[in-house]
Amino acid sequence: MVRRVILVLGDQLSPELAVLRDGDPAQDVVVMAEVPDETGYVPHHPKKIALVLSAMRHFAEELREAGWDVRYFRLDGDGPRSICGALMAVHQDCHPEEVVAVRPGEWRLIEALEACPVGVTLVEDDRFLCSLDRFRDWAEGRKELRMEWFYREMRRESGFLMDGKDPAGGDWNYDKENRKPAQRSLLQARPMEFTPDAMTEEVLAMVRDRFSDNFGTLDPFVFGVTRTQARRALTHFIKTQLSDFGATQDAMLLDEPYLNHGVLSVYMNLGLLLPREVCAAAEAAYRDGQVPINSAEGFIRQILGWREYVRGIYFLKGPDYTASNELGHSRDLPAAYWGGETEMRCIREVVAQTRDLAYAHHIQRLMITGNYALLLGVDPAQVHEWYLSVYADAFEWVEAPNTIGMSQWADGGVVASKPYVSSANYISKMSDYCEGCSYDPEVKVGEGACPFNLLYWDFLVRHRERFEGNRRMGVVYRAWDRMGEEKRAEVLRGAEG
Ligand code: FAD
Ligand code: DLZ
Ligand code: SF4
């Protein structure tokens, strides 16, 4: 007699998952399923598919060792197409009293489970530091949902980096000491890499066979796929990279895709690491004097602040959020994003790195590929699909607010108080991409002018009515007005080209 069928999704690989915590291996059955609907809802990077499927198989093994009866559907078996199909097959086999799942991180799948004929009871995902109810309370009645205010409340409530009622070190935010231009001398180590075991090799062979048309290089595959490996990656990051994390956070350097970033999003988003333990490890390193406050605070803010905040926004704004297009942008995403040729070195480098690693750090995503798509006026839905496809850490609850909101301003300013756009000046200051580019970051118009310079003004002029009154943008409009009529016309002609 089976009491419950418990669904565990590919990004729910935590022993602490609410439905496992409340479950009983003696009476309940766990369902895990590799299915075409999940491997195919966007053209995922092959490394991402391999990561998710291999981590799922390893987690299923661990559950079996812990005494669970796991019904596992493999993609290369004759299995169901969808998660609901897998639940129906197991339901028919064991007639449970109840089917339970933790609420998925994507509206698409929530709706599919709600419509599934077996009747699925969804419970909240309590692996996060802020519950969705708590976020809704915080958002209620506020005119602006700024991350910084949310973050301070989270600091107070969680106690991370607090000395009594005061923030550790005296300030809430140390960004004035962070975000320096690129300095190779501050790079100490790369994120930890792992050698695939036999189980991963088997998944790699299947992915090589089935997904070779998807954008992205499968080999070498160096991600960890178990909690033990993820814990080692965390320890390695804290010991070798965190101390200079703040200083190099926004820098971009050729051949240094990671700088002092830890790629821990991959492990956290699958559930192999919990955000609480990652923040606790960073705080402990600060308290022990191993890392300075600016790095510890900058890092913890990304998780306790940004990561929790974007999840809150995704669920607060509902299923239509991904269709937002406040600026009415409609151009197609350039072929360069899928590896097509381009003379723009920054775009070429970030896309090539994305193809090879399924990874780019935040400023590469925001200020190179995101910035360019926004300046061009690309349809945000296409930009969203690209980000959801190409990064190993991409799951909609975290990807969509970052893309639709922060990067493309398509939500009309819910996430970002002003659009993240820049001319070449920022890229040239923060990276070494411009050296050796066919364009010149210093040239604003005419021969050799960097497209970012032309498109930057074009974007601002196109959307003048909307942004001129923005407190932080008036100054750029005044600079445009001072430019002189002839030069302005030349810039706008150049942007058309
Ligand atoms: P680190 O720089 O080492 O940061 C530490 C941790 O902070 C990360 O592991 C991550 O969990 C968290 N974090 C940092 N910034 C953010 C943020 N803005 N939102 C949420 N969490 C954050 N992050 C994803 O996890 N998945 C995505 O699909 C994703 N898509 C993005 C799309 C765009 C357009 C942009 C601008 C950002 C996106 N981000 C996404 C946020 C950020 O770029 C990644 O979290 C980060 O690059 C992951 O690399 P890391 O672990 O080395 O990060
Ligand atoms: C991303 C992904 C992929 C590629 N494949 C599977 C899968 O075969 N089975 C599964 O349970 N989950 C997979 N996932 C993760 C889901 O897409 C993810 O759970 C939802 O998007 C909700 O975040
Ligand atoms: Fe990018 Fe312009 Fe610099 Fe070339 S010159 S790398 S296109 S910012």
Low-confidence segments, ≥5 residues, pLDDT <50?
A: none
By DSSP (H or I, 4+ residues per run), the number of helices equals 22
Biggest sheet, in brief? 5 strands, parallel
Order of helices and strands: EHEHHEHEHEHHEEHHHHHHHHHHHHHHH
Report the CATH C-level class of the largest domain. Mainly Alpha
CATH architecture assignment name of the largest domain: Orthogonal Bundle
Total number of β-strand segments?
7
N-to-C terminal Cα separation, in Å?
69 Å
Total domains: 3
Which small molecules are bound? flavin-adenine dinucleotide, ligand DLZ, iron/sulfur cluster
What's the CATH H-level homologous superfamily of the largest domain? DNA Cyclobutane Dipyrimidine Photolyase, subunit A, domain 3
Strand portion: 5-15%
Global morphology: globular
Mean pLDDT: 96
Task: Record keyword descriptors for this entry.
Rossmann fold; binds iron/sulfur cluster; Serine Threonine Protein Phosphatase 5, Tetratricopeptide repeat; 22 helices; 3 domains; 497 residues; binds flavin-adenine dinucleotide; DNA Cyclobutane Dipyrimidine Photolyase, subunit A, domain 3; binds ligand DLZ; mainly alpha
Explain the overall architecture:
The chain has 497 residues and is mainly alpha-helical. It folds into 3 domains: 4-123, Rossmann fold; 132-191 and 241-315, Alpha Horseshoe (Serine Threonine Protein Phosphatase 5, Tetratricopeptide repeat); 335-496, DNA Cyclobutane Dipyrimidine Photolyase, subunit A, domain 3 (Orthogonal Bundle), CATH 1.10.579.10. The chain is built from 22 helices and 7 strands. Strands 3-2-1-4-5 form a 5-stranded parallel sheet, with helices on both faces. Strands 6-7 form a two-stranded antiparallel ribbon. Helix 1 links the parallel strand 1 and strand 2. Helix 12 (275-287) packs antiparallel against helix 13, helix 14 (345-357) crosses helix 15 (362-376) and helix 16 (380-390) crosses helix 17 (396-407). The radius of gyration is 23 Å and the shape is globular. The mean pLDDT is 96. The structure holds flavin-adenine dinucleotide, ligand DLZ and iron/sulfur cluster (SF4). Residues 261-265, 268-269, 299, 302-303, 306-307, 310, 361-362, 365-366, 370, 387, 391, 393-394, 398-399, 402-403, 406-407 line the site of flavin-adenine dinucleotide (FAD).
